[in-house]
Design goal:
TIM Barrel, alpha/beta, 274 residues, 10 strands
Amino acid sequence: MIKLSFSTLGCPQYTLDQVVATATESGYDGVELRFLRGEVALEKLPEFSPAGIKETRRKLDDAGIEVACLDTSVRFTSPDPAERAAQHQAARTYTWIANELGAPYIRVFGGAVPDSSPDREDTTRRIAEGLAEAAAASRAEGVTTVLETHDSFCTAAQMSELLSYAPNDDLAILWDVLHSYRTGEALEDTWRGLADRIRHVHIKDSARYSPTGFDLQLAGEGSMPLAEVVDLLAKEGYDGYVSVEWEKAWHPEIEEPDVALPQYAAYLRNLLPR
């Protein structure tokens, strides 16, 4: 059965108590942790420290709210050994937090690659090797690394090329539907190409989107085929989370979370199979 969550990217200033209240009052099954109290580096907050994380989990468990995914900024585009080591350390830190909170996934990025050869091939290989190593390390701790369809890797075709440089079974996929769709790939083609790896899904509406950009709209007020997305997932037996990614932290001009997050929950609930 498909479950609903929202990313705290949509409510970046909220406290943990506000996040939990929004989830329970709006009918979400889980939350995806990206921001809390204005901080994107969650490991810096006492709520995710060794001393405080058990209380954080207790609050979530008591409310019946799962942590659907833990979002990192990890990417392996840099050739610098020190920077790559720092990215691996960040992945290990978030893997520990995920384990403590009972979250099955940590999200990572592929990043941007140059258009010209041989830089394109070299960068893609470097990214693939870093992701493979990070995914193997997290899997050894019982957490799956999911790579978001984002940046230079929005489509199934782009993802397949990336994975060919360092084949592995540890790395899964977070399908951000807007990014693959706005790049011109049909929903069915993305699913067909990545279905065996898709573990988590991001959803948002947009009225003006193209390979070079997009806007953000309340659910049903844009032209993204949200109903088709949900129908496809249901038809194919997807039983993970569909997570609302309302990018309030990056676009402060869009509607406030107390408007957008309940509205998305109500809209998507009407699309889910009964």
